[in-house]
Design goal:
Length: 399
């Protein structure tokens, strides 16, 4: 007889991580996992990059302590990550106008940003793209922020920049707008440079605070190109927040490695903000997990390791791009190449396929193909040898 937990309601599993569990127990030997956003190689494995393995070997030899790293985490990691995101020669870094607080992954960075907004910028709402990563919705609601939406795709599954801009123009002054810096999750539709300039003008005119979620640097068009919008905003605006993740580009998923980056207009103000972040982090996780950040700092501090990592990351990016066009080609014999042509144009790991929740459910029931119910497919989980099978399954449920 329960005295305490009897009234606890059961809620559905996580919309994305829950798929991992369901896939694992599916006995079908030809099942296909296009759920959670992880990169898989042609063997269906999520490899540890060689640069990471080598950095780990070096760390094993060099590491002398396991003492705490401090509230903002590993300073070398912070310094290297700031340069990776804002650019090696960014003037704002030289002027001491940006800082990094290490967090458990990009999700930790988002949570820290949400807590900071709720505590230090009371009354500000947050605006998310519709659709967005489902955890954005629940995470910001959990910290008590008012969550609102701006349109992003139209009813025909096309990026709708005009509708987005029209909505941004109506956002109350001072509110926070979350923008996906590249490789939009879940759609894979990214803004072009002219679109970004237009968004910047609205953000500036309405004095909005941008929160740039940057989880896929290197998976769109390359490390530097993917940072273009972040750098445009960081140069043009006096204040902004960036959540950076090392999960995908360093293959460090379970090591929970990321950071909240803050750009301020004044070094003293930056320290004020950082004092709040350290306080909040202390109350959330005390100090961040060290290993992944030490790996990243090691790679980014060593020219040879960095070169190897960039090569490996470029290889993953090129392979995902080839899988995109390969899937469209495989759909050709079924007369579906045009209908799914957007898959070839989208960027990053994900494709918003345009398939309905009902079609996604049939893919899973009849063909053991696992996708998020929104119709999002993780293209980076595809196997080139199975593109024909997948195309056939898609053709069956779309018939
Ligand atoms: C995804 O959207 O699949 C990834 O960002 C992984 C996650 O944590 O959901």
């Amino acid at each position: 007889m329960s005295r305490h937990f009897g009234g606890v309601a059961r809620i559905p599993g996580d919309p994305i991580l829950g798929l991992m569990d369901a896939f694992r127990v599916d006995p079908n030997p030809v099942k296909i996992d296009l759920g959670v956003g992880v990169y898989k190689d042609s063997q269906g494995l999520t490899p540890i990059p060689r640069a990471v393995k080598e950095a780990e070997r070096l760390l094993l030899q060099r590491e002398t302590t396991k003492t705490y790293t401090g509230g903002h985490g590993d300073p070398l990691f912070g310094e290297r990550l700031l340069a990776l995101v804002f650019g090696e020669d960014a003037a704002l870094l030289g002027a001491g106008l940006a800082g990094a607080t290490q967090t458990p992954g990009g999700t930790g960075a988002l949570r820290l940003a949400g807590e900071f907004i709720a505590r230090s910028l009371p009354g500000r709402g947050i605006w998310l793209s519709d659709p967005t990563w489902p955890i954005h919705e629940t995470l910001f609601a959990a910290v008590g922020l008012q969550v609102n939406h701006y349109p992003y795709v139209d009813g025909d599954n096309r990026l709708d920049v005009d509708a987005m801009l029209a909505a941004l123009e109506r956002i109350p002054h001072g509110d926070v707008v979350l923008l996906h810096a590249c490789c939009h999750n879940p759609t894979g539709f990214d803004l072009g440079q002219d679109d970004w300039r237009r968004v910047l003008e609205v953000v500036r005119a309405r004095e909005l605070l941008p929160l740039l979620d940057f989880a896929y640097q290197g998976f769109g068009d390359g490390l530097e190109d993917d940072a273009w919008a972040v750098r445009l905003f960081a140069e043009a605006l006096p204040e902004l927040l960036v959540t950076s993740s090392c999960s995908k580009n360093f293959g460090l998923y379970r090591e929970r490695t990321g950071a909240l980056l803050v750009r301020c207009d004044d070094p003293e103000r930056l320290q004020d903000v950082r004092s709040q972040l350290a306080f909040l982090a202390r109350n959330l996780w005390s100090t961040p997990p060290a290993h992944g950040a030490a790996v990243v700092a090691t790679i980014l501090s060593d020219a040879a390791l960095r070169g190897l990592w960039v090569e490996e990351l470029d290889g993953m990016r090129r392979r995902v791009a080839a899988l995109r066009s390969g899937l469209v080609e495989a759909l050709q014999p079924f007369g579906l190449a045009e209908r799914f042509a957007h898959v070839g144009r989208q960027r990053g790991m994900f494709s918003y396929t345009g398939m309905s929740a009902e079609q996604v459910a049939r893919l899973r029931q009849d063909h053991s193909v696992y996708m998020v119910s929104s119709g999002r497919a993780n293209v980076a989980g595809l196997d080139e040898a199975r593109l024909g099978d997948l195309a056939q399954a898609i053709a069956r449920v779309c018939a």
